[in-house]
Amino acid sequence: MLAAEAGIETSVICFTDGQAATNRVGAASNAELGKMRRAEFAASCRLLDVTHQELLDYQDGQLEFANFSDTAAMLVGRIRTYRPNIVLTFGMDGALNTHPDHTMVSAFTTAAFHWAASPKRFPALGPIHVADRLFYNTASFFLPNRPAPLPAPWTVTLDVRRLQHRKFEAFRAHASQAPLMQNFQANFESRAGTEVYTLAATPHPQPAQQSTDLFAGL
To answer: At residue 38, what are phi and psi to the nearest 5 degrees?
Structure first.
């Protein structure tokens, strides 16, 4: 939302439609649940003012078995097409819920960030693109009664308190995950006004430093 306010295009790629979810919310089949999740994802992206959104067809809960080179190449193609300044993904810890799919998305995206900039990698996918920054979403707190991740120290802190109500609206758009959200609502409500990120890679050697803007200096 901050990017949209600044006139910056955003693209969100989601790998799976969550058909392996524990919360079935009355879905009679995996396909029906997947259809619900796809509609929820699109609605959430609209609420967050996402410019482009894409939900892929990878199998939920099985990303660790996907072909690594082929999957990273797919993202290389997206990066060379969209040509972003910033690439943002999960940390390798798998985020607050330590989900293995999140870890794999981090690994695929990290490889794609670097390979999209290399003329030796997948030349058939178009001209190289050197993005300015790779960020990992990281954590400043843990969820109660859940295994703790091993988060990367953050280098960027965003104050999103004035947009917090819209974040909650986007969460609520994922109605099939309402039971999960209810379990952790208090944590999110008390902390959703701050987001933290780790600068993981840039084209230029530099020391780590604290910032309050993902796009500072660009």
So the answer is: -65, -40
Q: How far apart are CA 30 and CA 59, in angstroms?
A: 11
* pLDDT higher at 88 or 176: 88
Q: How far apart are CA 210 and CA 199, in angstroms?
A: 10
Is pLDDT above 70 for 24? no
**How far is Cα 76 from Cα 26, in angstroms, rounded to an integer?**
37
Cα separation, 129 vs 66, in Å, equals 24
- The helix or strand, by DSSP H or E, that contains position 156, with its residue range, turns out to be strand 156-159
Q: What's the CA gap between 167 and 32, in Å, rounded?
A: 26
CB contact at 8 A, 113 and 201: yes
Alpha helices in the chain (DSSP H): 2-5, 30-47, 68-82, 100-115, 164-173, 178-191
Closest CA to 54 of 74, 73, 70: 74
The full set of domains in the chain, from first to last, is 2-201 (3.40.50.10320)
User: 58-87, pLDDT tens digit by residue?
Assistant: 999 999 999 999 999 999 999 999 999 999
Residue 103 · residue 93 · CB < 8 Å: yes
To the nearest 10 degrees (0 to 180), the angle between helices 68-82 and 100-115 is 60
CB hemisphere CA count around 160 (13 angstroms):
25
Rounded Cα distance, 194 and 114, in Å: 28
